[in-house]
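Write out this protein's structure.
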Amino acid sequence: MSGYDFDLFVIGAGSGGVRASRMCAGHGARVAVAEERYLGGTCVNVGCIPKKLFVYAAHFSEDFEDAAGYGWSVGEPAFDWQALLANKDREIERLNGIYARLLDGAGVKRIEGRARLVDEHRVDVGGQVYSAENVLLAAGGWPHFPDIPGIEHAISSNEAFHLDRLPERAIIVGGGYIAVEFAGIFHGLGVRTTQLYRGSLFLRGFDDDVRETLADEMRKRGIDLRFEARVERIERGPDGLVAILADGEALEADRILYATGRRPLTADLGLEEVGVELDASGAVVVDEYSRSSVPHIWAIGDVTDRIQLTPVAIHEGMALAETLFGGRPTRPDHIDVASAVFSQPPIGSVGLTEAQARERYGEVEIYRSRFRPLKHTLTGRDEQTLMKLIVERGGGRVVGAHMVGPDAGEIIQGIAIAVKMGATKEQFDRTIGIHPTAAEEFVTMREPVS
């Protein structure tokens, strides 16, 4: 038994921090976790979970329209924003309780308050100092606002989950997945929505065919999508807010939501004083085992800015538990991590983009299919699904799989297993499809397009 109060002190009870705490305690370690906001972190409270619930809500507007093609008459639909908020809040409260019970059941001491490092082995929470042999930084990230005049009038995705009323007009600024998802949410709930992005095409880092397809589909739905558009300032006008663009155009809205990136929440944690190395964005620099520049201080999740995804943070937390207390040093695996964007229609992606594959392998084969989903043969909706496989020509291995269309995330999750296992295009071809489904297209594409 060491002379410390705990074997591990965790700063942050988000997805990664909670999983690391539980797994370490399961190995017999004495663990404490400090959280200043809410159990479950961004994902449970102002991220993945409430956002997916809002996506479901937004999609009903199209479902009501499409029902007529199948003989249904649903009358005049009406939406109650307050009812959605209340139901969402009730579910989040339930999940907060589950997280608390999981930590308590594992024997982890929960401490409410902001934690700050005193030195390599001591942490201060509200004036109470605790000692620990190891400290884990898992404080997550926070929305970042650019420094422009009037930015105080804008909101982030955090506040979007708690608006007192749904705006009639909204401007979304940003080109990442959060901006894209909220553009679809607001539009689906009846808000006149404009999305602005300073680059030539949004969703940088995704496959170009995916990016272009989603842009086309969003415009078909009526979202005012503008690229190479930069907001110079925001003003309050007589009828709401006004975004003044670099070209002088003025756009009016009731709400302006900025989704221009999230930064690691590492400020004022005492890291610099203790000697923890940070990069230019404020992320904790770690080695392949998640150890910081200070031997007994570790970091996982968004504070490291490796891959900002909840399952990745959980995976890193489990690897850390094995490394510290499981007797089996384990490096987190960040190769071929699948992801989804819950846009409308959604995106699923795993492995390399076409550009990345060409850069790495030189010669690749591209298999691509575009089609109208079977459902819309009766609805008349002009929606296209995209499916794409990227194959390394030398060994025939599938190194990338991408989709835009209904249930993309659900489908790509299964495809991700095959990609992770190193499946070849021949093995995809030998797999018999499930008919009629969209997913069968992944095993029936026979001719490369380039």
